[in-house]
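Incident review: delayed structure delivery

Summary: a single-chain prediction request sat in the queue longer than the usual turnaround. Root cause was a stuck worker, restarted by the on-call engineer. No data loss occurred. The affected request and its eventual output are reproduced below so the record is complete for anyone auditing the incident later.

Affected input:
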Amino acid sequence: MAPSVCLIGLPGSGKSTIGRQLARLWGVDFVDSDHVIEAQLGCSIKEYFSAHGEQAFRDVEAQVIATLATRERACILSTGGGAVLRPENRAVLHAHTTVFYLQSSPEDIARRLRNDTGRPLLQGDDTLKRLKDLLAVRAALYEETAHYRIDTLRCGTGQVMRKVSMQAELAGLVPELSPTSAGSAASP
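Output delivered after worker restart:
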């Protein structure tokens, strides 16, 4: 099995954006677990949440994460913000991928997501309070799952991507992920 990198963090912390850039830089696949889930369900996560509830969604999410974390081909895997809620997800991600926790402040995320309507757990009048509540429940779970924590405070996308990339290079992951692009990739 080839080594994969997994990005975790609160909804809106930049996992998909950073993941796409890293995949392009390293010449590997980018996989967003939420997109895989939606393709499997045949509807949006928001619609599924409304019709079946959070627990039914988390059951599907756990199956998808187990499959993606143990795939044969290296990839950059972006998970949904709540993927760490299930112990089996934390265990499989930590055991089968190198996990980077993109640690973002609720204030920064609320500012970025002020017009976002696609995230079911962040709907309502007070997105900032909801993010703070989510972080209170999930912060320790993110820490438990992660091999590395990347502080994204006051960082643009390019800076966060470089932080992850540098840590992955120091950990020796980049040559394993993409031997042809490790020394020749241009910065975004």
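Verification: The first helix runs from residue 15 to 26.
Action items: add queue-age alerting; document worker restart procedure.
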